[in-house]
Specification:
Alpha-Beta Plaits; binds magnesium ion; TIM Barrel; 3 domains; eight-stranded mixed barrel; 57% helix; binds ligand C2E; alpha/beta; elongated
């Protein structure tokens, strides 16, 4: 019987093309792709051995040793292919930690392959596996069934594993792996009936193509600027890890001044900076990088996930990262400082569900803004707060239905008038189960789940009703500032709704002032600009809230129809530095030259209040004067303080 090599040549061509594509796409850097690389490499070596074996069929006597060598090699390598798929499967399901917990099972699973290895080692002496007979034909021996039994055992193990972890795969990915496993017995069956058609390696190559097309798509996983995993990759990987109860230490690296940097640098330079930050992060990881999953979660948040073998290194890595990221970045002859905070999340001890992890990764603002610090999730999530973050959607819904929301008012002091002439309306959520919840937590969550529109309506109605009331009128205040979220500003008829509400409560536009944040103004979406312009045209004054620290874009301030700029709390924290005071003085001058009023927020001491009055900030807001107060207490406070 003459065996045909053509299918092997095709398999080799396919596998070589796949390897080249993998190299060009830089797929081998990532550990998840690396196992796929091993599968392809093993298949290439096996098919080469098979090609040589078939080419040497019927060769002369002097090649006998070489023929034994290649046949033996092919059997050993070919039999390793299925265990290698299983390793790939374990990597795909992210279950190595589970496998490692069962050393006896692992030992048992290696037994069949050890048998094959032993048989092939002694085969040149006993010829029980195969032999090259007197007519120079390759003839299978009586032990050859061991080879089939071993392959069958691995095939069953792999198949059971695949079915068991089916839920960890997306539908198409599952079917790709399924096809791979199906291809193997089909090829063996065909070859049984038509032994001259050597198609086993060809069928494997086809299976590998399917996997390559449906599973190994690194571009889909990776974010293009940093090369780290995308947010949805993070979501999928974390979901898998939590399903598998995989112990992990996750480091969330947040650039606190991202918003200001983005404002200052614009799109391209911000991307360059993010690239440079990701390179520093990789540098800090050093040779740990191979075992770490890295992600970029948008808005200046990076994440590193360390698996079970690397848990002990997480603190050391966090310190190294902080150290590396404190050095200024050079960008087009500018020196840029990033203010970094790192949060260490130990899973499953601190966080054991996707929702909370996502809140840490994307939404949650860690209160302390001083930067260059390492937080621990367990400290941030004391006393069951962890469940609170997980349940936040439910809490918001409950608040809207049961009326757990209320509006507080924080008085704003006018230096010139020597009295409190305005106030900021600040929303409070008091949940029956979790108590008082910070707007820094529930507002971003409401923006994500869409509840912000109803929340915004509630705040506007509450504030307008208060402004229309007799007790407010008696206070002789000028206006109340109301925060608007970015998401609210995206609603096409927002301006119209607010104008109608003014009519409904019969209050004039100059009695309110709407605060938009700097982030909101960076979205230059038409709807938002239309809303802002329509509100300004209707005579409603606008404030720019949380005006950034140091890098803010004056051009944008100039381009918006603003009447007030609110200096962020960070200004109050930094004003003690004398150089900084020069920057502050000039910035205040510039804002004033644009005919805008300035409110400084977060003033907690008499000294700071004095300092900012000296700097000619005409409005001061902060705990030094008063915390945000419930409506009745606020009325009482203003009556007393304004001597009415
Ligand atoms: P914001 O608009 O910048 O509000 C000022 C925040 O600073 C308030 O936090 C206030 O309590 C706090 N604050 C005032 N004085 C001081 C001080 O002297 N020291 C310190 N450390 N903090 C001070 P709060 O009430 O927790 O609100 C946080 C953020 O949540 C607000 O920041 C605003 O962005 C958002 N928010 C609050 N209410 C609403 C709302 O009704 N709608 C929307 N869209 N966002 C809201
Ligand atoms: Mg505000
Ligand atoms: Mg503010």
């Amino acid at each position: 019987m003459e065996r045909i090599n053509i299918f092997n040549y095709c398999a080799l061509a396919i596998l070589v093309i796949i390897s080249v594509i993998m190299l060009l796409r830089g797929m081998l850097h990532n550990k998840r792709n690396r196992y796929f690389g091993y599968v392809v490499l093993l298949a290439i070596i096996s098919v080469c051995f098979d090609i040589v074996c078939i080419s040497m069929d019927n060769m002369a006597d002097e090649f006998i040793e070489a023929r034994y060598f290649f046949h033996n090699g092919y059997l050993v390598l070919h039999n390793l292919c299925v265990p290698m798929y299983i390793a790939y499967l374990v990597e795909q399901t992210d279950t190595w930690h589970r496998v490692k917990k069962r050393p006896v099972l692992v030992a048992l699973v290696t037994l069949p392959y050890l048998c094959v290895l032993c048989c092939s080692l002694i085969n040149p002496f006993n010829h029980k596996l195969f032999e090259i007979d007197h007519e120079l034909n390759y003839v299978r021996g009586s032990w050859f069934f061991i080879f089939y039994i071993s392959a069958a055992i691995y095939w069953i193990c792999g198949f059971v594993y695949l079915i068991h972890f089916k839920k960890l795969f997306q539908r198409l990915q599952f079917w790709a792996m399924f096809c791979m496993f199906l291809a193997m017995p089909v090829a063996v069956a065909i070859q049984m009936f038509r032994p001259e058609l050597v198609i086993e390696m060809f069928s494997q190559a086809l299976g590998i193509i399917i996997i390559m097309l449906l599973i190994q798509r690194p571009e889909e996983r990776r974010e293009s600027v940093t090369g780290f995993g995308r947010l949805n990759t993070f979501e999928m990987d974390m979901q898998k890890a939590f399903c598998n109860e995989k112990p992990m230490h996750v480091l969330i690296i947040r650039i606190c001044n991202y918003k200001s940097l983005n404002d200052m640098l614009g799109f391209q330079d911000t991307n360059d900076l993010l690239k440079a930050v990701s390179e520093r992060i990789e540098d800090a990881c050093g040779n740990l990088l191979q075992d770490i999953d890295s992600y970029y979660l948008q808005s200046g948040r990076f994440c590193l996930a360390l698996g079970p073998d690397r848990l002990s290194r997480s603190e050391e890595l966090a310190n190294r990262l902080l150290e590396k990221l404190t050095f200024p970045f050079e960008l087009r002859q500018m020196e840029i400082n990033v203010v970094t905070q790192i949060c260490l999340v130990c899973c499953p001890e601190d966080v054991s569900d996707l929702q909370t992890m996502l809140a840490f990764g994307t939404g949650m603002e860690w209160e302390d803004k001083s930067g260059n610090t390492i937080h621990r999730a367990k400290d941030l999530l004391q006393d069951g707060n962890c469940n609170m973050i997980r349940d936040i959607d439910l809490i918001i819904e409950r608040a809207l239905i049961k009326g757990n929301l209320s509006v507080y008012y924080q008085p704003i002091y006018s230096v010139k008038e020597g009295r409190f002439n305005s106030a900021e309306a600040l929303l409070r959520l008091n949940d029956e189960e979790y108590g008082e919840i910070s707007p820094n937590i529930f507002i971003p969550a409401a923006e994500k789940n869409g509840a912000i529109q109803r929340i915004g309506d509630f705040v506007l109605n509450e504030v307008f009703r208060f402004i229309a009331s007799e007790e407010y009128k008696a206070l002789n205040m000028e206006y109340v500032e109301v925060n608007l979220s970015v998401v609210q500003c995206m609603k096409a008829d927002l301006a119209q709704e607010i104008i109608e509400l003014l009519k409904k409560y019969d209050i004039s536009p100059d009695q309110i002032n709407l605060e938009i944040t700097e982030t909101a103004t960076t979205y230059s979406q038409n709807i938002m600009m239309d809303n802002i312009n329509a509100l300004a045209d209707a005579g409603i004054a606008l404030s720019l809230d949380d005006f950034g620290t140091g890098y803010s874009n004056m051009q944008r301030v100039a381009s918006l129809p603003l009447s007030i700029v609110k200096l962020d709390k960070d200004f109050a924290n930094m004003s003690t530095d004398s150089k900084y005071e020069i920057v502050l003085r000039n910035m205040i001058r510039m804002i004033k030259d644009m005919n805008l009023k300035i409110v400084v927020e977060g003033i907690e001491t008499a000294g700071l209040a004095e300092q900012f009055s000296q700097l000619e900030c005409e409005y001061i807001q902060g705990f030094f004067y008063s915390k945000p107060l419930p409506k009745d207490e606020f009325v009482e406070f203003i009556r007393k303080e304004n001597h009415q």
